[in-house]
């Protein structure tokens, strides 16, 4: 999977789009991927075939959707795409949910939905993407669509307040510390975060720490020097055991199991 960093998107979209990527795993294959817990809203748009998504460890939770929007979630998802395994994948910051889709991230937290239901104005985006002949065309189409959403909803987004709240939670390890930075009570912060994100401040900090560990594991694997203990320390975990327990609870596997099945080395073995 190739990923286009958000700094290569339109400057107007940069505060809202975290990643924008194209994936192409080749025709005639069945790919199952683990959707890890995330502090972003993700949108996956297969080019031709629908996507089956289920929550890990929840039998009967599977749904087949044409294009998937997933909110912030603390558990792992399982995604299966058959046939033409090609499409577009992007993630939005919590700010981006309101500014680009017209609804708070809390409306999607812990849920998956079809893009057409979340943003009816984007209902035909999968078909329009399928008609494009190259990734630059697809990226340009996605950006134009998002800019249209920004023009429609952007003025209704409290960017400054939410951005300050997320920054304070990201810079601290305790909710009380974040509240002090913001000059408010812990109760006020909890209410505000639940209203905007659909998770508690502590849960959001867990997601940030989990994502930091995931990034550290990927970087270490690419460098050929994986030390789970070192990643745990750098990501704010008490020790390696703490990191492993958190990964089992949130991802349904250990860090080393995830690296073996879906880490950089595993990706390098996949058809491009």
TrEMBL record:
Task: Note the superkingdom of the native organism.
Answer: Bacteria
Q: What are the protein's UniProt keywords?
A: DNA-binding, Transcription, Transcription regulation
Keyword Metal-binding belongs to the record: no
Question: One Pfam family name from the record?
Answer: HTH_18
SUPFAM superfamilies the UniProt entry points to: Homeodomain-like
Q: Which InterPro entries match?
A: AraC_XylS_family_regulators, Homeodomain-like_sf, HTH_AraC
Q: Which residues form the HTH araC/xylS-type domain?
A: 159-261
Q: Can you name this protein?
A: Helix-turn-helix domain-containing protein
């Amino acid at each position: 999977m190739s990923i286009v960093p958000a700094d290569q998107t339109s400057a107007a979209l940069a505060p809202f789009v975290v990643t924008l990527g194209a994936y192409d795993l080749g025709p005639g294959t069945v790919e199952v991927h683990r959707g890890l817990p995330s502090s972003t809203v993700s949108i996956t748009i297969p080019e031709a075939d629908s996507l089956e998504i289920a929550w890990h460890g929840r039998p009967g939770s599977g749904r087949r959707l044409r294009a998937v929007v997933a909110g912030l979630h603390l558990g792992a998802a399982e995604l299966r795409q058959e046939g033409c395994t090609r499409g577009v994948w992007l993630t939005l910051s919590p700010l981006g949910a309101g500014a680009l889709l017209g609804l708070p991230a809390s409306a999607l937290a812990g849920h998956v939905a079809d893009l057409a239901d979340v943003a009816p104005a984007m209902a035909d985006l999968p078909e329009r993407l399928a008609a494009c002949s190259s990734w630059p065309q697809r990226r340009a189409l996605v950006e134009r669509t998002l800019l249209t959403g920004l023009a429609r909803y952007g003025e209704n987004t409290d960017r400054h307040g939410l951005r300050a709240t997320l920054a304070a939670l990201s810079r601290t390890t305790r909710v009380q510390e974040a509240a002090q930075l913001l000059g408010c009570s812990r109760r006020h912060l909890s209410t505000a975060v639940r209203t905007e994100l659909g998770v508690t401040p502590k849960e959001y900090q867990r997601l940030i720490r989990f994502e930091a560990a995931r990034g550290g594991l990927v970087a270490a694997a690419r460098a050929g020097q994986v030390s789970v203990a070192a990643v745990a320390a750098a990501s704010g975990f008490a020790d390696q055991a703490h990191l492993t327990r958190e990964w089992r609870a949130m991802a349904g596997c250990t860090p080393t199991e995830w690296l073996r099945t879906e880490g950089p080395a595993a990706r390098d073995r996949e058809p491009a």
